[in-house]
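Hey, I'm writing a tutorial for new members on how sequence and structure tokens pair up, and I'd like a real worked example in the thread rather than a made-up one. If someone can provide the structure for the chain below, I'll link this post from the tutorial.
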Amino acid sequence: MLKVLLGTSGVVGRNHETLPLITKADPDGKRRKRAPRIWPAALIGILYYLVFYRLLPFLCDALRHHSHSAAIGTVRWSPCTYPDSLPNTECGSIVVPKDYFNLSAGTAGIALGKLKADPGQRLGTVLFNPGGPGGKSKPFIVKHGNHIQAEIGSSYDIIGFDPRGVGDTLPVVRCFDDQFTYAEFKRNTVLERSYDFASNQSHAEIRELLITQEREADALLKAQFSRCSKKMGDDLKYMGTTTVVRDMDLITRTLEGEEALINYYGVSYGSILGQYLVNMVPDRVGRVGIDAIADATLWAGKPPYQWYSQWLSQSEKAYDIFLTECYKAGPQACALVKDTDQAPANIDARLEAFHDSLYYSPVAVPDALQPGILTAGRSRMYVTVALEMPGLWPQVAQQFHEAISGNATSLLNGIQWWNNLIYTDLERSAITCNDLKPFAPPSIEEVVDGYLDVYYNVSRSVFGVVTSEPDAGCQYWPVTPPERFEGPWNHTLKTPMLIITSAADPVTPAGKRVDEIMGSSSRLLVHDSPGHGGFALPSLCLSNYTRAYFEEGILPPEGTICPLEDPLFPAPAHAHTHVSSENETRLQRMRSWRLILERYRRGLDV
């Protein structure tokens, strides 16, 4: 084994053949001089370095990979080791082929977490994905699966599986390491702080600024993917959504039997995975529910810089709701309101002027948890991401109010909290870029002009979402996957898919479009609310329909719209006096779990 790991014994010998360590007679009888005694110590030092800094990590990694060296379909369960694991949970893994069409490529180990169903009511298994791509599903289900169980019922084992390249699944995407993390690579670059400009500049001035910043972004993207290629090699090509669907099929067949149908619930990117699932293996699916809907036809068919006109088509609507509800709530419930305000537009103008001021004079924030500066790009991006989570709008309004008043500590802390959610490595890119149809590298000017078209004609959020949803740079992706599904996207299903959406989703507004594509094989359920997905805000109506679908196969009536049940800016003494204590408990659970889910879809384990 050591010979294999270190190479042949002659490798080290060749490195030192001119520096003999002992006196030895040559064939002519002459004797060589003894080498300085520093060399034995140096050799010991070299061996110490090789063993502890090269060989030992390699052996540890080999031991981890040994767990999936068994036969394909092998499943191992054991008690979960998370200190906050829920009761009735198990952790494990399943061995799958790296390449379903070339078994000689080896195997992968898909990490699993299971929350068990009520034994007397068990209907089967539901697979779950929290989004991303890059979200860790195994720890989410083991620690927080009771929240999902509350929405779909307790009649199913809920299986969280870490998709290819993610979490505890092996091989995992590790283009960076603990010595130099992805966060350190991005820190204080345009990939982290977003794009800086002032809205009161001319179009030509803004374009020139953005071209300079996009050149920086392009170089960083090229560098990160080059590093990823050197660190990961061919393992990168096995991490696309198409292959994940194959894994889901194998997981279900293994756990439930060859004829068992695949039941699935997914959010955000999980809606993309759901569309792949029902169209790749339409005869294999049972009950499938997706929330926060992105359009798979766009995802697989166009480069990311061309996505945003659709992605952000409801972003300004969500922002208008934020401004209007803040204004209506008044200064007691929304700190951004002034007594002199005449309309929501006054709040908008104040925020826009604040963003612009940061371009001309960034603010030093020495008392933040990570001391730094508040810039225009960071400030605008925070508005963009806040629109996804309306349950935090009162808090976000307070943070901006304090910053405008001269204390930006809380605001920068909030921005940094969000930045820390944006993935630990390039696991998102590994999935996004493997899914994309190859495209010709665009010019810097073409990318910037595309962004500006969206900025002026669709949404001011475009530059924030480019940063917060990092999908750019796939023109530099170094591998080609063995399989890439590109449609069709409208297969007929025996059981229609449940599509859940909010009425003003700022980043994934494609619920109606996907429902139209699927025709009679889907049913749309709308929550009359803003936010990233129908469950961005709690809804008993939404929860009841979702549970009826999974437990009994009952679809909501055509055209169902669930009313908003929580105020967006609740008064300080607000209480839900119109609901029972049991339902209030359900609402409270829904308020907390979506924020937890947002962290997991960004690749964190909390």
